[in-house]
């Protein structure tokens, strides 16, 4: 691996409003490490199946704006999906939204778990353990339309996801609606079904968190990312302050 780290850490700014907030971005990169050939056309790597479009940009803007920290994945979800349990179907996807990933056929999951998945989650765990009562912000984005289900409307600008712990969700939803967004509560899918990273690092140890899915056409350019960061910043601070 030549010393490659499957994560990037942005340190919080001491004394800032957001110093106790950590953004976790499981799908922030479309990078395919050396030695892996997924067997897909290059244009696939710019699509939602390979990366959560807009997440890295919004994360960096929030870190600059409120001084929070972050852990960003540096490996494409097509290589291994950090937001899945180790034994979950789709951990190393063979297909995604109708696109075959032939390079993943016959891959030994243990190789990628050891090289990328476990170091990433270890970095998340270390980052959170070093902080007293961190507030976690899990940031993802979703495509406006799935190629395999074009009849399925996705009108929400942003979705709030959670499993058992909905404390921050109940605070954030009215704030986001008040900012003019169409907010999905457990939409476009439910965090009770897909919440692996937050189940592990937030719900299991009892840490407060907010899970957000941004619709990708809202954050696909610099202006959209900046607007979303402006909206999210006070929501994050409000959740953190009320749950501290």
General description of the model:
The chain has helices spanning 55-66, 109-129, 167-178, 196-203, 222-243; strands at 7-10, 21-25, 69-73, 95-96, 99-100, 135-142, 158-161, 183-185, 209-215. By secondary structure, it is α/β, with parallel strands linked by helices. It has one domain: Aminopeptidase, CATH 3.40.630. The strands form 2 sheets. The protein has a 7-stranded mixed sheet with strand order 1-3-2-6-9-7-8, sandwiched between helices. A two-stranded antiparallel sheet has the order 4-5. Helix 3 (167-178) links the parallel strand 7 (158-161) and strand 8 (183-185). The model has no long low-confidence stretch (mean pLDDT 96).
Total domain count: 1
For the biggest sheet, the summary is:
7 strands, mixed
Shape designation: globular
The number of helical runs is 5
Computed structural class: alpha/beta
Order of helices and strands: EEHEEEHEEHEHEH
Number of strands: 9
Keywords: Hydrolase
GO molecular function: hydrolase activity
Protein name: Putative N-formylglutamate amidohydrolase
InterPro entries: N-FG_amidohydro (IPR007709), UCP029730 (IPR011227)
Compact overview of the structure:
The protein is an alpha/beta fold.
Produce the secondary structure layout.
Elements: E1 7-10, E2 21-25, H1 55-66, E3 69-73, E4 95-96, E5 99-100, H2 109-129, E6 135-142, E7 158-161, H3 167-178, E8 183-185, H4 196-203, E9 209-215, H5 222-243
Parallel strand pairs: 2-3, 2-6, 6-9, 7-8
Antiparallel strand pairs: 1-3, 4-5, 7-9
Helix pairs in contact: 1-5, 3-5
